[in-house]
Design goal:
The chain is α+β, with helices and mostly antiparallel strands. It folds into two domains: about 150 residues, 3-Layer(aba) Sandwich (Beta-lactamase), CATH 3.40.710; about 55 residues. About 30% of the residues lie in helices and about 10% in strands. Strands 1-2-3-4 form a four-stranded antiparallel β-sheet, with helices on both faces. It is globular and about 50 Å long. About 5% of the residues have low confidence.
């Protein structure tokens, strides 16, 4: 199914795995020059963590990623040629942050992003029982630090029910949400452009599931 921006969670987990393996440090600055980028000098102290949290000052250009033969490597330099925006240090959602993180995963692993994520995120879990470690480890799991050490707000959305992400592209909207400290994970997607935002799917699904679980707390109050 199409998950749109929910895929940012998978990219973030891949970054977490690389951090846990000592192959990168999320608190370190981005290795732009090693990745063959020559950004404005004010990007030199932007950290991987800032990209994860959408606080890097990356410009917002939503449609740029979906036109023509657009890809991260060709579009990212157009946003790095200028200094970070005045919103640096504040949450400002931008696809560019995770575009850069995907390229970072490729650089660190030497693999295309899909292969790297398969190896880092999905292969260790096998075919069955896909889940996050926030709900506790299964007997067949590979030991690793808690995902939420790296995968944390405001890089993910939170509300009174739990945490997750929404997704919106032309032709599909989606929502994934983690309840009960990981014991229940709900994913929903709709093909088409109604409703217009993935957040609307979350607004419908989250309280309904919450009521079914006996933890209903009204309309979701989502942050950020």
């Amino acid at each position: 199914m199409v998950v749109a921006s929910v895929s940012k969670l998978v990219t973030a987990i891949a970054v977490a795995r690389l951090d846990q393996q000592g192959l990168l440090d999320v608190n370190a600055t981005m290795p732009w020059s090693l990745m063959d980028f020559a950004p404005n000098e004010q990007w030199s102290n932007v950290t991987i963590s800032e990209l994860l949290d959408h606080t890097s000052g990356m410009p917002v250009a939503r449609r740029s990623w979906f036109i023509s033969d657009a890809d991260c490597r060709s579009f990212l330099p157009t946003f790095l040629i200028s200094p970070p925006t005045s919103h640096r240090g504040e949450w400002q959602y931008s696809n560019g942050n995770y575009c850069a993180l995907g390229l970072l995963v490729e650089f660190i692993t030497g693999q295309p992003l899909d292969i790297a994520i398969q190896q880092l995120v999905f292969d260790p879990l096998g075919i069955d029982g896909l889940h996050l470690s926030t709900g506790g480890l299964l007997p067949t799991d590979v030991q690793h630090p808690d995902d939420l050490d790296t995968l944390r707000p405001p890089g993910v959305f939170t509300d009174q029910y739990g945490w997750g992400h929404t997704g919106t592209v032309s032709g599909a909207v989606s929502c994934i949400w983690v309840f009960e400290l990981g014991r229940t994970v709900v994913a929903a997607t709709i093909a088409g452009n109604s409703p217009a935002q993935g957040g609307t799917i979350c607004d419908l699904v989250i309280p309904a599931i919450g009521n079914d679980l006996g933890i209903g707390q009204g309309f979701p109050i989502r942050t950020p």
